[in-house]
Amino acid sequence: MNQPSDRTLKQSEIAKLAGVSRAAVTQWVKRHRDFPRADGNGRFPFRDVMIWLGSRRVHGSIRDTHDHAGTSYADRVHRALGPATTGAATPAAPLPMTETAAPPAQEMPTLGGSSPAENLALLLALTFLHTRYPDSWAALFEQDPPDFGARGAKWLIERIAAAADEASRQCGAHSDVIGVLRGLTPNSVSEVRRTMTQCAAFAPADVQRIVDSYETALSPEAFFTPRAVATLMATALRDSPVESVYDPYVRGGELLTAAVDTAGKSARLRLHGATPKAQALSIAGLNLLARGENVNLRGPFDQAGPEPRTSGTFVLANPPFNIESWPDRDSDADWHPFPAPPARSTFRWLLHCVERLGENGRAAIIMPNSAAASGNRREREIRRCLVALSVVEAVIALPPGLFADTDAATSLWFLRRPRSSDQPILFVDAANRGTYPHGQPILDDGAAADIGRAWQLFLADRDAGQPHRGVPGLSVAVAKEDIQPEHHSLNPAEYLPSQGWQPSTQGDDRRAKLQLPYLRSFDRRRAADIASAALSKPPRGGTVRIGSVCEVKAGYSYSRLPAKKRSSEPGIPIVLPRHLRHGRIVVDEPSTAPPAVAAALHQYQLRAGDILCVRTGALTPPALIGPNETGWLASTNLLRIRVLDPDAIDPYYLYAYLRSSAGTERMKTLARSTAASYVTAENIAGLVIPFPPPDQLRSLAEALRTLDQEVTAAQDLAIEVTKARDAAADLLFARGTQ
Q1: Using a CB cutoff of 8 Å and minimum separation of 24, what contacts does 566-572 make?
Q2: Separation CA 293–CA 289 (nearest Å)
Q3: Interatomic CA distance for residues 97 and 105, integer angstroms
Q4: How far apart are CA 88 and CA 7, in angstroms?
Q5: Which residue among 89, 126, 626, 720 is least enclosed by CB atoms within 10 Å?
């Protein structure tokens, strides 16, 4: 094999190593002037390609389970080839810094060719054995491998995994450490022993630094909760008689470690939790065990069952949103006195948390903002019951984008067991308190302290029996009778608009509540005016055929998933043509595919940034897939358009073209030209669209997105104005009939 300094690659080799399609590499060559030039044989210099790939981050919609938010395409090549063959052409890109500016993962011991999650599990396992089982640790150094190459290294890893697995089970973590470490692929015994020697310097106090370095190591559905948010959730434990803490969906164990840090070592909490994810179960267990804690972690349906509830049992939870999870499969769930939540509803997690609370306990749970004001009938009734039974103590709106791989807006809900009480609910609007030191939003120490202070002041006034005035511009206490009556909304923005407005004590003052949507609409209008100026000039550059920059694929064949096999039970949601509304996917309780059937149809799954078009029937406008629909299935009568290289073309630009009058007319022309009035994947792939240079394309896409946001703000304002008009009329005529 050529040395890295003079090695060359074909386009197909670049595609395979970088984990992309051949067409994506072709686009890199055509569209990026700084991409290395090929020699006379069509081959590209390895070193130059690695430098270029090192400057390109893997887009969120095409990351695989081994990629984190900072992964570059060069990292994928390093992972595919291993350090022995990549040499020193380009160092792996460092992981993004955390709130505490922890060292990047590359400063930690690593085994080449292994995923970040596997390396994290190994470091935690070694630290755990070294600090708590020194005899097992010493025995590992005395092991005599069959050879000192890759086979012997694999043999030694298996011995480490077996020792850590046995020790973790003795400490209550019923996880599969062997399964998690099985994927490690070291090249030699010396590499493994070097890692062991480096880990011998770690103490329990170093575990947080290790975890911070790998905070994005888990898969998207199991990412770590940001430490600032986890600490804020653990404030629910302060000044309370806490006996045990339960996490129903452990990710990396960060919520349970935050509970320990908040309560103090002297508290000696009993820690327990569950998760269906084997990798998360193992990493969470090792994370806590390496810190010196004991923990009871199990799968959700482990025969041993959950730990008995005590009066001081608290719950901390960051459950997954909009996917089938184990509460959906729990046939023994008793939702009384609440109505049964819809399938895949986050309220299933919330009610499970309430059910697990001790008499004096409290739950802190991350919820999507949509849960606070959703229009679903059963969810609306659940909110009514939560308010009536004084279950909700506080709702805190967090800055959007805090969590990896999603821009979803979230809130933190503080809950307690149902009781008869007239105590108010605290609403905190911290949605604008995020900061962006490294491009990714974080909740900094100042904002977290302000939120914690607002909560403590509320509790102090409530315990003293005094009215709580709230913190101007941040929080307000609202009486139960003043909760929005139509939808029982728990959205802080509805009760704490800007300019210091406070809920009216004279009833539902709809006109006052219009202030916030007016301001939001005005802000969007100003942004849209700037965007309109950017769109006033025609795009520069030439054109491009959609098929050369996108993959166009029809939905699954009807024979593979006929209507009789669909279900309303938990499974993978199916997108049908009627779900494409106003450019988005709008569906309440979708039909689903059984998990086994969906697994066989994985090539038809959707990603954020995909565009769906109707293939047969009425040509409704296309829809842009968001994070919430990732993993859903495209049905028979739909076409999925997937951008091959998001660096070359923003999916929103293509989406905007297809729903424009020009794009709509082209689609209609294609449909009319066929005998059965339908559009094929080849038709879409053959469409030629304007294609400006990358810098102008990005600015145009952002301008179009801004105008779309203005439309949404105006629609929201129109809805609120209509409500205000109707409320005024109802009040007038109600008085007239008295």
Answers
A1: 566/591, 566/592, 566/593, 567/591, 567/592, 567/593, 567/594, 568/343, 568/592, 569/343, 570/324, 570/328, 570/329, 570/343, 570/344, 571/324, 571/595, 571/598, 572/324, 572/598, 572/605, 572/631, 572/632, 572/633
A2: 5
A3: 10
A4: 13
A5: 626
| C-alpha distances out from residue 367 to 398, 408, 410, Å | 10, 10, 6
> Both tokens of residue 571?
């499974």
The one-character DSSP state at 210 is H
**Length reported for the chain:** 738
CA distance 522 to 537: 25
Distance in angstroms between the alpha carbons of the first and the last residue of the chain: 93
Number of neighbours of residue 347 by Cβ within 10 angstroms: 23
Helix count and strand count (H, E) for the chain: 27, 22
Whole-number Å distance between alpha carbons of 290 and 206: 9
Mean pLDDT, range 10-26, rounded to an integer: 86
Residue 146 Ramachandran class (φ > 0 left, ψ -120 to 50 alpha, else beta): alpha
Q: Quote the pTM value.
A: 0.55
DSSP secondary structure letters along 337-400: TSPPPPTT-HHHHHHHHHHH--TT--EEEEEETHHHH---HHHHHHHHHHHHTT-EEEEEEPPT
pLDDT one-digit tens code per residue, 544-553:
899 999 999 9
Six-digit token pair at 433?
Answer: 């308190």
Task: Lowest mean pLDDT of 100-104, 622-626, 693-697, name the range.
Answer: 100-104
Q: What is the DSSP track for 47-99?
A: HHHHHHHHT-BPPGGG--TT--TT-BHHHHHHHHH-HHHHTTSSPPPPPPP-T
Q: What is the three-class DSSP state of 490?
A: coil
HSE (side-chain half, CA atoms, 13 Å) at 408: 21
Integer Cα distance of 667 and 658 in angstroms: 8
Contact 556, 635 (CB under 8 A): yes
Q: Could you give the C-alpha distances from 521 to 445, 513, 700, 714, in angstroms and in order?
A: 31, 14, 21, 6
Instruction: Tell me what pLDDT residue 276 has.
Output: 81
Query: Quick one: how far is CA 287 from the chain centroid?
Result: 21
Residues β-bridged to residue 475 = 428
Higher pLDDT pick, 323 / 377: 377
Cβ(113)–Cβ(79) below 8 Å: yes
The letter for the amino acid at 717 is L
Q: What is the DSSP letter of 567?
A: B
Q: What DSSP element (H or E) covers 544?
A: strand 542-545
Half-sphere exposure of 180 (CA within 13 A, CB side): 29
Q: What percent of the chain shows pLDDT beyond 70?
A: 78
Q: Model confidence over 348-398: pLDDT tens digits?
A: 989 999 988 888 889 999 998 888 888 788 888 999 999 999 999 999 999
pLDDT tens, residue by residue, 277-305: 778 888 888 888 888 888 888 877 665 55
Which residue reads 């409500």 in tokens?
723
Burial class (CB in 10 A: 0-12, 13-18, 19+), 338: buried
pLDDT in the model for residue 641 = 94
Asked if 31 and 648 count as a contact pair (C-beta separation under 8 A), the reply is: yes
| Residue that is written with structure tokens 């520069």 in the block | 540
Q: Residue for token digits 């409320």?
A: 727
> 283-287, 634-638, 679-683, 727-731: which has the minimum mean pLDDT?
727-731
Residue 718 tokens read as 């129109």
- Identify the H or E element spanning 551: strand 550-554
Q: What is the pLDDT of residue 391?
A: 93
Distance CA 451, CA 58 (A): 34
Query: Which contacts of 462-468 are long-range, i.e. CB under 8 A and separated by 24 or more positions?
Result: 462/423, 462/424, 468/424, 468/426
**Which of the 8 DSSP states describes residue 443?**
-
At 17, which helix (H) or strand (E)?
helix 11-18
